[in-house]
Amino acid sequence: MSAPPSSTLPPFDPSDPLGLDDLLTDEDRAVRDTVRRWAADRVLPQIADWYERGELPGIRELARELGSLGALGMSLTGYGCAGASAVQYGLACLELEAADSGIRSLVSVQGSLAMYAIWRFGSEEQKQRWLPAMAAGEIIGCFGLTEPDHGSDPAAMRTYAKRDGGDWVLNGRKMWITNGSVAGVAVVWAQTDDGIRGFVVPTGSPGFSAPEITHKWSLRASVTSELVMDDVRLPADAVLPEVTGLRGPLGCLSHARYGIVWGSMGAARASFEAALDYAKTREQFGKPIGGFQLTQAKLADMAVELHKGILLAHHLGQRMDAGRLRPEQISFGKLNNVREAIEICRTARTILGANGISLEYPVMRHATNLESVLTYEGTVEMHQLVLGKALTGLDAFR
After folding, report:
1. How many alpha carbons lie under 13 Å from residue 199 in its C-beta half-sphere?
2. CATH code, domain carrying 151
3. Contact between 202 and 356 (Cβ < 8 Å)
4. Beta strand 283-284 with 185-192: parallel, antiparallel or unpaired?
5. How far apart are alpha carbons 243 and 248 in whole angstroms?
6. What are the catalytic residues?
7. How many angstroms separate the CA atoms of 210 and 186, rounded?
């Protein structure tokens, strides 16, 4: 069958070279465009300053605004949540991370970890108490799994909850916890005599504290904390009743990792667009550097990996919406997309030359943020081993 004449084809769109917009519904585009406008108005004008200062001022106001957009617990149903599709949630993550990884992390931890844990494993009373206010951004949540000495091996966690009469008494430490210092509620995973259990912990509980972690060179516009629990007494109904064991926290992590598959492509897109604009205007040797073959080769390779990554994210989103997305497939997406996003940022930096390290451009900020995204919610090595086990049937974790 012969190809149609070029005059009948849509024009080539440098911002969408594969025509991926054709895969989206009108509602998908509306969600994407709404989040993009919010990020352009509320985050982009100030993010370089926030990053340089190493803080995220007005985080509670930002959370309420994100709640009004329906972006918190976006793909959950009921309890004030938007009930959006997985693809729509992914598009929102992409647009938020195109502004900054710290903003996407705020939303991911709130919705895909803290809220999802309560929504999926909590009692009806826990859902009614916490989820509506969290969906509105009135209460910020955090998720305590990683410990100072146990990251990739959560089964070895030392945080422990023991029964004392009708109560639970919780002791331990959690590390690298997004939103911790501003959270009103923490979902904390702990060893018990019955196995690993999740606890819904009001952060005002006596014995609970969340000192903020400073001196970071990545995710600087994000609140990162340690959680400290010294004899925190909780009522019997603080435990998440519907899960025991690691499948609880790992199920939450799969939900959050899916958002990273999309979000990392937002950081990559912002860096690619900065490099493309720069290449078309920066002149050397009498013409724009975008007119040189080596620069065009870099731009072409970046565009290929960027839009392949978005296509992969969309495919995984469709599988999630169909109830067919496996954890190994999420590992496939996170492993590929974060790695490629970092490489896109590094290549964009070379196109910008010395300007690439300036906060007047987003490239170095995205590159350093992605170094954290590469590690959290599963390191490269962990996702390689997940895929390796799936491919061979042999467990190489131990």
Report:
1. 31
2. 2.40.110.10
3. no
4. unpaired
5. 6
6. 377
7. 10
CATH number at residue 293: 1.20.140.10
265 and 179 inside one domain: no
pLDDT above 80 (res 3) = no
Q: What is the CA radius of gyration of the chain?
A: 22
Q: Are residues 158 and 191 in the same domain?
A: yes
Question: Has residue 15 been placed in a domain?
Answer: no
Number of folded domains in the chain? 3
d(CA 363, CA 205): 41
Helix 293-321 / helix 247-281 crossing angle, nearest 10 deg: 150
What count of residues does the chain have?
Answer: 398
269 and 371, same domain (yes or no): yes
- The CATH number that applies at residue 50 is 1.10.540.10
**pLDDT for the residue 4:** 66
Range of the domain at 369: 247-392
Whether the predicted model's global pTM rises above the 0.85 cut:
yes
Collapsing DSSP states into helix, strand and coil, what is residue 132? helix
Structural tokens at position 356:
């690439």
Q: Which two tokens stand for residue 375?
A: 């590690």
SS3 state of residue 149: coil
Q: Would 364 be classed as within a structural domain?
A: yes
365, two tokens: 């900020």
For 329-354, what is each residue's pLDDT tens digit?
Answer: 999 999 999 999 999 999 999 999 99
Residues 168-214 pLDDT 10s: 999 999 999 999 999 999 999 999 999 999 999 999 999 999 999 99
